[in-house]
Write a structure and sequence with these properties.
Elements: E1 2-8, E2 14-20, E3 23-29, E4 39-45, H1 51-67, E5 71-75, H2 87-101, H3 108-134, E6 139-147, H4 150-159, E7 163-169, H5 176-182, E8 189-194, H6 202-211, E9 217-222, H7 231-245
Parallel strand pairs: 4-5, 4-6, 6-7, 7-8, 8-9
Antiparallel strand pairs: 1-2, 2-3, 3-5
């Protein structure tokens, strides 16, 4: 991991951009983090829209977490932002847009082509990034995962033992095979569902929540569309991570 820029935000949070091989990312650490007082880490997932586009939302989440004593980090997803284009993924995204604009059901084939290759490539990259984050003296774990593509969160919760809790944003573009992986998830979960999300099949989201194998899993459903998440929902998620990571 090579740091490429550094700035101190007005609330004292240290923001550092980095590259891990060809993968760009951003790491935020609270002012109190040090080698003598390392802090837990939350991995910030996000949709594949590019870090530059997602930055305002990501930095807001990072500052909220820093106020609770957590470091946060994110990486650019494959085929997004400044990373090389991925023709197969671009085609799957185009197929999804066409189906949704035509008001047609989104078939299993489109969902699998869109999600499964992304999960297969992104999860090992998240694990490599986690190796790099935990090598820093000011970050000591434990580790949580928050938001992003829910199928990536599911796979990470199954294969990465260093992740001890996850906060997930419910979505319905989940391949059927991921329901089987969801049954293997055992860590505590906090799942957020926007009840009127225009791009989401509510029943599919409820079915996925039911499939999770965790003994501790909480579903927070709020009225409103995809971008209408209330502020208090973020506060609830912060309390969840504080309970499990501190």
């Amino acid at each position: 991991m090579r740091f490429t820029s550094e700035q101190r935000l007005d609330d004292g949070v240290l923001e550092r951009e980095f590259t891990l091989g060809e993968i760009p990312g951003i790491l935020w650490t609270p002012e109190a983090a040090s080698a003598s007082s390392p802090v837990p880490l939350i991995l910030l997932g996000h949709p594949p829209l590019g870090l530059h586009k997602m930055y305002p939302r990501l930095v807001a989440r990072a500052r909220h977490c820093a106020a609770e004593g957590f470091a946060t980090a994110t990486i650019e997803l494959p085929g997004s932002g400044d990373r090389p284009s991925w023709p197969a993924l671009d085609q799957a995204r185009a197929d999804l847009r066409r189906a949704m604009q035509a008001g047609e059901p989104v078939g299993d084939g489109i969902v699998e082509a869109l999600v499964l290759p992304l999960v297969d490539k992104a999860v090992p990259e998240w694990q490599a990034a986690l190796d790099a984050f935990l090598s820093l003296p000011e970050i000591g774990g434990p580790v949580g995962y928050s938001g992003g593509v829910i199928s990536i969160g599911i796979r990470l919760a199954v294969v990465e033992p260093r992740i001890e809790a996850a906060g997930l944003f419910a979505g319905s573009l989940v391949p059927r095979v991921m329901f089987e992986e969801a049954r293997q998830v055992t860590i505590p979960l906090h799942v957020l569902l926007q009840w009127d999300d225009e791009g989401n099949d509510r029943q599919a989201s409820l079915d996925l929540f039911d499939a999770f194998g965790s003994k501790e899993k909480t579903l927070h459903a709020n009225m409103g569309g995809h971008t209408g998440v209330p502020q208090f929902a973020g506060d609830d998620a912060a309390r969840f991570f504080t309970r499990h990571l501190r």
